């Protein structure tokens, strides 16, 4: 039932995050090589790395939430009755959906402000608003993932495997 969202998340947020990480790898290689052998680093390399790190982090959020691979505090699981665990899980997903939804809304207001003021990076003069809009979209997608789990239980995924 939930295989299509898994594929969508892999091909959207997972691909975005992996491409950004791949770009960071090459940017770092070129920057280090340039500094070592040519005494010249990539102009704006730090700005590009910062933007790409934002894309990696926010791009991975929906997929990590879908697979329930985030950090879990489970010290009380031994004392919580089984019947309460389902309610607890749905309540946690509801809080997460609301929190990520609020963060997405706040990021849209920030992105709008960046666009209105024409904010850019210092060295390369790259517009900041598209990155903020992407962050807002990925936060909203993460909120939707958690909202799905409020009404249907998460698919159990063992480490290193994908969902059926």
TrEMBL record:
The chain crosses the membrane at residues 12-30, 51-67, 87-106, 126-151. Keywords: Cell inner membrane, Cell membrane, Membrane, Transmembrane, Transmembrane helix, Transport. InterPro entries: DctQ (IPR055348). It is found in: Cell inner membrane; Cell membrane. The keyword Lipid metabolism does not apply. Residues 24-151 form the Tripartite ATP-independent periplasmic transporters DctQ component domain. It is a multi-pass membrane protein. Belongs to the TRAP transporter small permease family. The complex comprises the extracytoplasmic solute receptor protein and the two transmembrane proteins. Part of the tripartite ATP-independent periplasmic (TRAP) transport system. This is TRAP transporter small permease protein.
């Amino acid at each position: 039932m939930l295989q299509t969202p898994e594929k969508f998340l892999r091909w959207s947020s997972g691909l975005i995050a992996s491409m950004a990480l791949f770009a960071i790898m090459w940017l770092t290689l070129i920057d280090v090589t340039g500094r070592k052998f040519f005494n010249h680093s990539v102009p704006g390399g730090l700005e590009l790395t910062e933007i790409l790190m934002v894309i990696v982090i926010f791009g991975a959020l929906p997929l990590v939430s879908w697979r329930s691979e985030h950090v879990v505090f489970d010290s009380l699981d031994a004392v919580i009755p089984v019947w309460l665990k389902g309610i607890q899980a749905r309540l946690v997903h509801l809080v997460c959906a609301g929190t990520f939804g609020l963060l997405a809304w706040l990021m849209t207001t920030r992105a709008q402000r960046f666009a209105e003021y024409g904010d850019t990076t210092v060295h390369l003069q790259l517009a900041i608003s598209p990155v903020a809009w992407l962050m807002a979209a990925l936060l909203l997608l993460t909120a939707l993932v958690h909202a799905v789990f409020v009404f249907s239980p998460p698919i159990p995924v063992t480490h290193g495997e994908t969902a059926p």
